[in-house]
Amino acid sequence: MNRDLFSVIKAKLPNLSKGHKLIANYILSQYDKAAFMTAQKLGKTVGVSESTVVRFASELGYDGYPELQRQLQDLMRNKLTAVQRIEVSSEQMNSEDVLQRVLNQDIDRIRATLNATNKDDFNHAVDLITSANTIYIIGTRSSAALAYFLNYYLNLLFPHVKLVPSTTTSELFERIMRIDSNDVMIGISFPRYSNQTVKALKYSKTNGARVIAITDSTSSPLADYADALLLAKSDMASFADSLVAPLSLVNALIAAISIRNVDLVTQTFGKLEKVWEDFDVYAKNTETTERNEDDEDV
Question: Which domain covers residue 240, as residue numbers?
Answer without folding.
Answer: 111-260
